[in-house]
Automatic annotation (TrEMBL):
It comes from Thermogemmata fonticola. One of its GO terms (molecular function) is adenine/guanine mispair binding. The keyword Hydrolase applies. Its EC number is 3.2.2.31. This is Adenine DNA glycosylase. Belongs to the Nth/MutY family. Adenine glycosylase active on G-A mispairs. MutY also corrects error-prone DNA synthesis past GO lesions which are due to the oxidatively damaged form of guanine: 7,8-dihydro-8-oxoguanine (8-oxo-dGTP). GO terms for biological process: base-excision repair; mismatch repair. Coiled coil: none annotated. It catalyses: Hydrolyzes free adenine bases from 7,8-dihydro-8-oxoguanine:adenine mismatched double-stranded DNA, leaving an apurinic site. Residues 37-188 form the HhH-GPD domain. SUPFAM superfamilies: DNA-glycosylase, Nudix.
Length: 363
């Protein structure tokens, strides 16, 4: 059975594999970058970022020599910026202590920032054919259904079971292709809802299909009830320029990214009245509250954040802050120079577009 499963999956993969820019490469650096980007991000979203990133940093040496702010600027929009910082830090470690080599050495890889069991196995199996299994959302779903495993393979005993199952199923050759094929099968055929069992190369052996339990194996992941958070963001204008502030490296969210000043508030009902004091506490500047601009909603871990954006006019004062590490006055055309979080980028791009349309209307 094991040999048949391996053979059928690899034949299916040869016929149905998607053409992706990081495939057909045994370069561990390119594989590493792709796998880091693909964590918690869709393949379609990653492709343009991957191509821009490799065009700018084609080698581990180029990435190691870059400034962190340049790395973050290319990463903005992908989210989970800690991935980019770990990638950058690991590149510097490889260059400084290992001559820029990316060897077939699991112990070395696991010692790098941001490299856990999955990344280590993904790089080494694809670049060097090392017999290490990969377990992620797609492959664990395929394996749970194949063997009819009714527990939760994401945690505890279930997680230990699925890694053992993945290891036991590995072929002795083409390990990288097999790992990719397993993930591809889960992405294209063995989907979370309405799996296309008739197209599956493993349909003959699939226990969940035999039991009619495809939709219930594995059980859905439990999701915590989101905590609603209200925040006030202030776009401070000084002539044609806006104030951008840099978050500290120790911030829980978006460390060292740039943003307009914002803070959590109890309620948005009296945002205008709160605005001058919020700005004073964050920047020591005196401002005059303007008009509401927009409200953006986004999720961060278990928090659902409602970002209420207002305009304000600079009156007087010199920037000083016990939170932000730096501040600059920029024109809307200069925003591309600064790495911004996704909600801040959405906010500022929207206001920049309005400013351009307003200027065009005046001419």
């Amino acid at each position: 059975m094991r040999a048949a499963l391996q053979r059928r999956l690899l034949v299916w993969f040869a016929q149905h594999r998607r053409s992706l820019p990081w495939r057909n490469s045994r370069d561990p650096y390119r594989i590493w970058v792709s796998e880091v980007m693909l964590q918690q991000t869709t393949t379609a979203a990653v492709i343009p970022y991957y191509e821009r990133f490799l065009a700018t940093f084609p080698t581990v040496e180029a990435l190691a020599q870059a400034e962190e702010e340049d790395v973050l600027r290319l990463w903005q929009g992908l989210g989970y910026y800690r991935r980019a910082r770990h990638l950058h830090a690991a590149a510097r470690t490889l260059v400084q202590h290992h001559g820029g080599r990316l060897p077939d050495d699991p112990d070395l890889w696991r010692s790098l920032p941001g490299v856990g069991r999955y990344i280590c196995a993904a790089v080494l199996s694809q670049a060097f054919d090392r017999p290490l299994p990969i377990v992620e959302a797609n492959s664990l779903r395929v394996l749970a259904r194949l063997y009819g495993y009714r527990g939760d393979p994401r945690q505890g005993a279930g997680q230990r079971w699925v890694w053992r199952a993945a290891q036991a199923l590995l072929p002795t050759q083409r390990v990288g292709d097999f790992n990719q094929a397993l993930m591809e099968l889960g992405s294209l055929v063995c989907t979370p809802r309405q799996p296309r069992c008739a197209e599956c190369p493993w349909q003959r052996w699939c226990r969940a299909r035999q039991l009619g339990e495809q939709e219930r194996i594995p059980p859905p992941a439990s999701r915590p009830v989101p905590v609603e958070v209200q925040e006030l963001a202030v776009l401070i204008r000084r002539g044609s320029r806006w104030l951008l502030c840099q978050r500290p490296a120790t911030a829980n969210r978006w460390p060292r990214l740039w943003e307009v000043p914002h803070a959590e508030i109890a309620t948005a009902n009296d945002a205008r009245a709160q605005l001058p004091e919020v700005v004073r506490q964050l920047t020591a500047l005196e401002v005059q509250a303007g008009q509401p601009l927009t409200t953006l909603c986004h999720s961060v871990t278990r928090f659902r954040i409602h970002l209420h954006a207002w305009s304000a006019r600079y009156l007087r004062g010199t920037f000083a802050s016990s939170f932000y590490t730096a501040a600059v006055w920029v024109t809307p055309q200069e925003l591309d120079r600064f790495p911004l979080s996704s909600p801040q980028r959405r906010l500022l791009e929207k206001q920049a577009a309005k400013a351009v349309n307003l200027k065009l209307g005046e001419t």
